[in-house]
């Protein structure tokens, strides 16, 4: 590491001070930019998308964050003036940023420069972080109504679920997923939050209510695989853009 590179303990201390000072709301954007040093592992999400993508900070000068232009930025097309979410996590803290794309550089290694509009710090109250998912499930409501759904994320404690049914917050639903051609896993979850989409779909946050050893093993395997893929993606981006990876992400 170079002398200018912040160590993890320094970054954690800066974030903790900002959180303690403001309660995590509307923190100093300049200080956040300074924390987001070259080589930082971040995740980005375009508004209207449910997927968080691994990305890489290339530069944090001129009050902007320059990050890699990744393949998923073209679906849907990101252009200057569009807003994008960014997330940087360290220990139990999540730095959440709303940014606008100030400019894009069309080059052999394309980049986009982000201007932070707002930054908040959350103390992660979830039992675990969520990871992208993308598979179908079957469900049955407390009124015995059957429905089809789609998992958008998954953690050790619950899932993000999208379906067309209007489910009651606090209710229990039975979920079935297929882990092989002939093997199905059934489990129950509670609806803990809901959000209505403009296309007549509902997005729910759920929490598992009967974690069997079999379900725990399936989820652990899935999450470990996702974590490994994220690290590989980060390392590949560092290699592509000739950035030295940080020894903590």
Automatic annotation (TrEMBL):
Name under which the protein is recorded: Type IV pilus assembly PilZ
GO molecular function, one term: cyclic-di-GMP binding
All copies of domain PilZ, residue ranges: 125-223
Gene source species: Pseudobacteroides cellulosolvens ATCC 35603 = DSM 2933
A matching Pfam family: PilZ
Domain of life per record: Bacteria
């Amino acid at each position: 590491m170079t002398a200018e590179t912040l160590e993890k303990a320094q970054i954690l201390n800066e974030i903790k001070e900002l959180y303690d000072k403001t309660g995590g709301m509307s923190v100093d954007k300049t200080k956040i930019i300074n924390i987001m040093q070259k080589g930082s592992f971040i995740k980005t999400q375009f508004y209207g998308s449910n997927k968080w993508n691994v990305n890489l900070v290339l530069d944090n000068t001129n009050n902007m964050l320059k990050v890699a232009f990744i393949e998923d930025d073209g679906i849907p097309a990101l252009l200057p003036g569009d807003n994008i979410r960014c997330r940087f996590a360290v220990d139990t803290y999540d730095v959440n940023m709303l940014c606008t794309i100030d400019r894009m550089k069309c080059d052999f290694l394309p980049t986009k420069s982000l201007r932070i509009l707002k930054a908040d710090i959350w103390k992660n109250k979830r039992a675990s972080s969520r990871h992208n998912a993308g598979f179908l499930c079957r469900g049955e409501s407390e009124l015995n109504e059957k429905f089809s759904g789609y998992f958008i994320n998954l953690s050790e404690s619950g899932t993000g679920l999208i379906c067309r049914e209007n489910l009651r917050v606090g209710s229990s639903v039975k979920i079935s997923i297929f882990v092989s051609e002939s093997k199905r896993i059934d489990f129950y979850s509670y609806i803990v939050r809901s959000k209505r989409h403009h296309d007549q779909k509902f997005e729910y946050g759920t929490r598992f209510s009967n974690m069997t050893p079999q379900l725990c093993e399936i989820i652990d395997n899935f999450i470990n695989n996702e974590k490994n893929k994220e690290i590989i993606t980060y390392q590949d981006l560092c290699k592509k853009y000739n950035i030295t990876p940080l020894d903590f992400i």
